[in-house]
Design goal:
Length: 287
């Protein structure tokens, strides 16, 4: 299996319309100590299908555009995966249609069914209005859904990008934790996540702005998530996210580093464009 990180940059061609939250406050200046606004979102796009299990990328584009977010973490992203998403490259297509840059981190990458066709891939992605300075696809513990006899093992699909927001470098991570009722794999994934994020902190000479976006497949009070809240703040959007129709639990998250990022506001968007609802948050970055 050949795994790679693919980053595609698309020039912004149009403003994004519509909001879920009030427009973010303008930065109070560009000097040290000032706060820089950033709107982020996370959305499990269900490989382009809605709550009705009908593939319809047009309605997901409309939903993503309405969020008016600067940075968006996506889960369940197909790239030439198969018939369920019409063999399309959802990461590149969403970026192009929204006028954003994209970095795609495959969890799975398989040879094509037909020689010469693109590789079949599935994973997470980050869309950004800001230039992606660097990107990496980290390994975390996974229990493969493609192996008939899986065992927990390190595998790719924990995406990280660094974007520079009005001069402020921001590390953005996109993740999709294990869905099974047994929390043991999620527990290992949280430990891996904290290790990777701590290494990023240690590699910098100043405090690092970190934003974790993803489908954690666990409730906020789940014991396996508790270690995350030691260093991260849950934006607490005030409502459940799954399933999209009459949701009963919150398993989709925006979490930010406690010391460098403040939360202005957060909300869950009501939509049936996927089987999850997106979370959007207005943040303030400390310079």
């Amino acid at each position: 299996m050949s795994l790679r990180r693919r980053t595609v940059e698309v020039l912004l061609t149009a403003g994004l319309l519509g909001t879920v939250l009030a427009p973010p406050a303008a930065a109070a200046g560009h000097g040290r100590g000032q706060l820089v606004p950033l709107r982020v979102a996370t959305y499990n796009i269900h490989a382009g299908s809605g709550m009705d299990n009908v593939f319809d990328l047009d309605r997901q584009v409309a939903e993503l555009r309405s969020l008016d977010a600067d940075v968006i973490g996506l889960q369940e992203v197909d790239v030439h995966w198969g018939d369920r998403s019409q063999g399309r490259d959802l990461a590149a297509e969403l970026a192009e249609r929204l006028g954003m840059r994209v970095s795609f981190a495959p969890i799975y990458s398989f040879d094509p069914a037909v020689p010469g066709a693109p590789r079949r891939e599935f994973g997470v992605a980050v869309l950004s209005r800001y230039r992606i300075v660097s990107a990496e696809n980290h390994d975390i513990t996974r229990l493969s859904t493609q192996d008939p006899n899986p065992v927990p093992a390190l595998a790719p699909g924990f995406g990280e990008v660094v974007v520079r927001v009005k001069g402020v470098p921001v590390h953005v991570y996109a993740t999709h934790l294990d869905y099974r009722g047994d929390p043991s794999v999620r527990t290992a994934q949280v430990a891996d996540t904290r290790r990777i994020m701590a290494e990023d902190q240690e590699s910098e000479r100043r405090p690092v702005h970190q934003i974790l976006l993803g489908d954690f497949n666990a409730a906020p009070a789940a014991p396996e998530l508790a270690p995350l809240w030691e260093t991260l703040t849950d934006v607490e959007p005030g409502g459940p996210t799954y399933p999209a129709l009459d949701p009963v639990q919150r398993i989709d998250y925006v979490a930010v580093s406690k010391d460098t990022v403040r939360v202005r506001d957060a909300a869950v968007a009501e939509t049936l464009a996927s089987d999850h609802r997106p979370v959007v948050a207005d943040l303030l970055l400390r310079r």
